[in-house]
Amino acid sequence: MPQAPSTRWCPTSEQLMMLEELYRTGVRTPNASQIQQITAHLSHHGKIEGKNVFYWFQNHKARDRQKLRRKLSRQPLQAFSQYSSSPHFLPQLHQTFQPQRLRQGEKVHEQRQGLDLLRKLEEGQCAWITSSPSGRERETVMEMDGGGSAFCRQLKTLDLFPTRSTGVRDECGTSMSASCSVLTS
Amino acid sequence: MPQAPSTRWCPTSEQLMMLEELYRTGVRTPNASQIQQITAHLSHHGKIEGKNVFYWFQNHKARDRQKLRRKLSRQPLQAFSQYSSSPHFLPQLHQTFQPQRLRQGEKVHEQRQGLDLLRKLEEGQCAWITSSPSGRERETVMEMDGGGSAFCRQLKTLDLFPTRSTGVRDECGTSMSASCSVLTS
DNA sequence: GCAAATTAATGATTTATTCAAG
DNA sequence: CTTGAATAAATCATTAATTTGC
User: Fold this and answer.
1) Are B165 and B174 in contact (CB under 8 A)?
2) How far is B2 from chain A (nearest CA, A)?
3) What is the pLDDT along chain B (185 residues), one digit of tens a residue?
4) Interface of B with A in 109-168 (CB under 8 A)
5) Its pTM surpasses 0.85
6) Residue A134 to chain B, least CA–CA distance (Å)
7) Pairing of β A155-157 and β B181-183
8) How close does chain B come to A56, measured CA to CA in Å?
9) From A131, which residue of chain B is nearest by alpha-carbon distance?
10) Bridge partners of B182?
């Protein structure tokens, strides 16, 4: 069939890796000259023009920031957990794990609560995660050394999460189906 | 009898299946609370602690990415590989980009170039960036056509990224060993 | 068949990056 | 410019698979 001559640049894996390598090592907003050089090099690995390089860095930088923000805004849901050995616990967990999105203006600072585990693990303050919760289900899921989860306010899940992706999301999953949550307090 | 002090967690098949199910359905980086919940549930199927869950997701995600990248790098789809992937190309580019770091006072100019570019692009004055960078630029930047080694004599590797290859390990094109090179002349 | 020897997986640690707040 | 937070990448280390000589 008369394949439409792809109207847009499609980076080869090598080009992509090289761009990412440059990005990883600090290049963010290359100037004209730099773009020219990059383009020259990458052109050995496939069709490419300067504007592609320019746009790539623009987009990559932006999406990186976006990803970070999203990452920071991941909030824990309410502790519920007496399903114990329910054979249906998985679906329930899923409900709890849907990515949460908070309001735009919400201060990022108070929203983190993610995994400072690593640090705590290394510092030995990881009782909460090191200890085996095997004994019984605790309804006070975490108590985290007093000050850890003060901002663990009540979230109200509004709805939906058709998430059923099979591929590898997370990274460039710019738009993962997310449920919408709102602070109710 | 001093039982083999199994030094590390060994997931039961049930635990593994549950973790994989969670992963398949989108869980990638569970936060503290979520880890607690997962741990609580999985503990019904065998000994387990929070950090095991944490590490499991870290590793699984990382190795998934790794697998994907390795797969991608195996499909270099252009015949331009006469230059193939020169290990020198990156360092050279980096060298070019080093001067990008400016002192506080004079930062504006460089930074603004990106915007200028965009403007030009949108205004149609982007001939310089749209045009394919053939020949000319290449010469000034890299001489490597006659055997890239000639270029290397002038380079001094700073070893920003020590290429400690443990040999055996995985990897391939994922992370090109990038060292920071500087002209010594 | 069966261990010792080898190799592949994968759990656990360490190290480097990144963004952005201070 | 410095530092905090939070990974992701790299790598170390141990367990499971498998191969191999008998």
Assistant:
1) no
2) 22
3) 555 577 899 999 999 999 999 999 989 988 888 888 899 999 999 999 999 999 999 999 999 988 887 777 665 543 233 334 444 555 555 555 544 443 443 444 444 454 455 445 444 444 444 444 433 333 333 333 322 222 223 223 323 223 333 333 333 333 333 333 333 33
4) 110-111, 113-114, 117-118, 121, 126, 128-134, 137-138, 141-142, 160-161
5) no
6) 5
7) unpaired
8) 12
9) B49
10) B156
How buried is residue A82: exposed, middle or buried, by Cβ count under 10 Å (0-12/13-18/19+)?
exposed
How far apart are alpha carbons B118 and A58 in whole angstroms?
10
As a residue count, chain B comes to 185
Name the closest residue on chain B to residue A173, using Cα atoms: B26
Q: What is the largest CA-CA distance in chain A?
A: 66
Query: Which residue is closest to A45 within chain B, CA to CA?
Result: B80
Residues of B in contact with A116 (CB under 8 A): 32
- Alpha-carbon dihedral B22, B25, B29, B35, rounded to 10 degrees: -30
Backbone dihedral region for residue B132 (phi beyond 0: left; psi -120 to 50: alpha; all else: beta):
beta
Q: Can you tell me the distance from the alpha carbon of B123 to that of B126, in angstroms, rounded to the nearest whole number?
A: 8
Q: How far apart are CA B179 and CA B158, in angstroms?
A: 7
Residue A122: CB atoms within 10 Å: 9
Residues A17, B176: C-beta atoms closer than 8 Å = yes
Domain positions in chain B: 17-73+107-122
- Residue B40 corresponds to which tokens in the numbers above? 């609580």
Residues 6+ apart with CB under 8 A from A56: A11, A19
Alpha helices in A73-175 (DSSP H): 89-97, 117-123, 127-130
A72 nearest nt, CA–C1': D6
